[in-house]
Structures are given as C-alpha cells and as structure tokens.
Amino acid sequence: MTPPHDDRSDDPVALVDVLDARISVDDTLEAVASPSAGGVCLFVGVVRDHDEGREVRALAYSAHPTALQRLQEVATAVAARHPGSRLAAVHRVGPLEVGDVAVVAAASAAHRDLAFEACRDLIDTLKAEVPIWKRQHFGDGGAGWVGMP
User: What is the 3-state secondary structure (H, E, C) of the chain?
Assistant: First the structure.
C-alpha cells in the first residue's frame, strides 16, 4: 500500500493500491484528510446481487501486472485536472461476495463541489483505464467477464 499523504508533501495523490484483501474505507478516507479541505467526497463500490437482469452470486476481479502503476498514473492525471485536490483510490482483486467492498475512491478539496468533481473523475477514469477485470458468477450457473479489452 502506498503510504498515506503527508501534509508536508506536494504530491496530491495520497494513496493508491490494488489489494487481495479487505479494503479499509476508513484508511482511504483518512488518507485524503487535510486541514485545508472543507469538502471530502467518498465513493464506495460494492458487489451487488444482480447485473443486467441476472442474479449475481459472487465475482472475482483480476488485474494486469501493470494495474497498480496504471492506477498511480490515472490518479496523477486526475489530480492535475483538479488542482488543490487530494486523491486516494484502492481496488480489490480476487474473489468477492455480494456486499463486499470492491473499490474506494476519495477526494478532498477546499470546497465540496471541487471534491465531488475530482472524486467522480477519479472513479470514472479508474474504471475506464485501469486494467482490472471482473468475472461474475450468476445464479443460473453461468459466468461472464466484464470490462475485458
């Protein structure tokens, strides 16, 4: 795990990680904390029990070996688009059950609108550009990949 952001550092990317263990929402939120932040936005993605009309029993995320590096690059690019923000993003890999936390993105900024914009940009760009793929296992016994190139 990348260490939490130090207020003495100029790096706006406080935390990025790809884990095969439970994600701590509190640690991710704490990573973006700052005395200058009046707004903090947090997105928590959880495994839901359905997708496109089919029951989902479980799923597994797989990551390309470059996923962590790519996540760092994405977070750095998002931070550049949102000056004054502090960002954190953690994605889980491996098997997950319905209700498990799969991804957490957090952003802090001087004002709430800036935090909301940065957080939305971070999660949307992460999902579009970081090579992490989902294989869902359905209630009818079938399975399928999501997000494969």
Answer: CCCCCCCCCCCCEEEEEEECCCCCHHHHHHHCCCCCCCEEEEEEEECCCEECCEEEEEEEEEECCCHHHHHHHHHHHHHHHCCCCEEEEEEECEEEECCCEEEEEEEEECCHHHHHHHHHHHHHHHHHHCCEEEEEEECCCCEEEECCC
